[in-house]
């Protein structure tokens, strides 16, 4: 049978390796066409219908027509995530400007939400150039925590503010997909998560970053009721920001 493949955009960071491993080692691989993209591009591809399914920054959910979360797995954190920061040489109470990360959607929004609602600060937001502090996500942050005077782990502060875990990205389809495909897809994701130790053993050793702790503890992959609540609280707060965080 010659069936159209489902095109899938997945995040190109280490945190998504377990999902990619699962997809590549399970039968569903024959039904998909996989591309790896930075999160802001995953969002653009889903919004513009260039793919059918993707792990998408939750901040982009409102812009995707017919968005449907199709998995019980996500990229989340219960407390510190250790790869989403505001880095600064000044304490957050003294910054007057913040540069966003063009690879991010969710964390750019989260940073602005925390500044306003947790730190009670109104700061100038820039997309490029100099600023007192900057948002950075993904592998580029690994080992940088001690290179700056201040490093604010954003999901840790979100938990302090709301008591909730956080969901950075979820598996979203922009059109109805068959129930049997969704089942096979989720089985593959579960397979990958169950093989995290294999993935970790293939990663390089580095003195300044603990991959095991990151993939086993920091990233919390379950998309459960509390993470769903986090998404609805987050989207509510996103709507109160007076500007779109970023649209690359
Ligand atoms: C925890 C992370 O979550 C990411 C952050 C995202 C965002 O800010 O839009 C989107 C997807 C995730 O890859 C990370 O990549 O460090």
UniProtKB/TrEMBL annotation:
Keyword Lyase found: yes
Key words of the record: Lyase, Menaquinone biosynthesis
Catalysed reactions, semicolon-separated: chorismate = 3-[(1-carboxyvinyl)-oxy]benzoate + H2O
Class of the enzyme per the UniProt entry, highest EC level: lyase
One Pfam family cited in the UniProt record for this chain: VitK2_biosynth
EC number assigned by the record: 4.2.1.151
Record carries keyword Magnesium: no
Highest taxon in the source lineage: Bacteria
Record pathway: Quinol/quinone metabolism; menaquinone biosynthesis
HAMAP family: MqnA (MF_00995)
Function: Catalyzes the dehydration of chorismate into 3-[(1-carboxyvinyl)oxy]benzoate, a step in the biosynthesis of menaquinone (MK, vitamin K2).
Family: Belongs to the MqnA/MqnD family. MqnA subfamily.
Protein name (Swiss-Prot/TrEMBL): Chorismate dehydratase
Gene: mqnA
């Amino acid at each position: 049978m010659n069936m159209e493949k489902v095109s899938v955009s997945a995040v190109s960071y280490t945190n998504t390796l377990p999902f990619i491993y699962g997809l590549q080692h399970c039968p569903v691989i024959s039904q998909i066409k996989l591309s790896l993209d930075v999160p802001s591009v995953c969002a653009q591809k889903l919004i513009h219908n260039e793919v059918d399914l993707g792990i998408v920054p939750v901040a982009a959910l409102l812009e995707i027509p017919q968005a449907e979360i199709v998995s019980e797995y996500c990229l989340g954190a219960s407390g510190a995530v250790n790869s989403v920061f505001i880095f600064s040489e000044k304490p957050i109470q003294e910054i007057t400007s913040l540069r966003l990360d063009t690879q991010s959607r969710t964390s750019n929004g989260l940073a602005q939400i925390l500044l306003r609602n947790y730190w009670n600060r109104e700061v100038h937001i820039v997309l490029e150039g100099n600023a007192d502090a900057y948002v950075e996500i993904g592998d580029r942050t690994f080992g940088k925590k001690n290179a700056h005077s201040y490093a604010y782990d954003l999901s840790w502060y979100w938990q302090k503010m709301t008591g909730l875990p956080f969901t950075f990205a979820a598996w979203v389809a922009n059109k109805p997909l068959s129930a049997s495909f969704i089942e096979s897809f989720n089985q593959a994701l579960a397979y990958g998560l169950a093989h995290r130790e294999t993935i970790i053993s293939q990663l390089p050793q580095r003195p300044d970053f603990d991959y095991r702790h990151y993939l086993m503890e920091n990233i919390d992959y379950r998309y459960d009721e509390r993470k769903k609540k986090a998404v609805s609280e987050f989207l509510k707060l996103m709507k109160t920001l007076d500007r779109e965080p970023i649209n690359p």
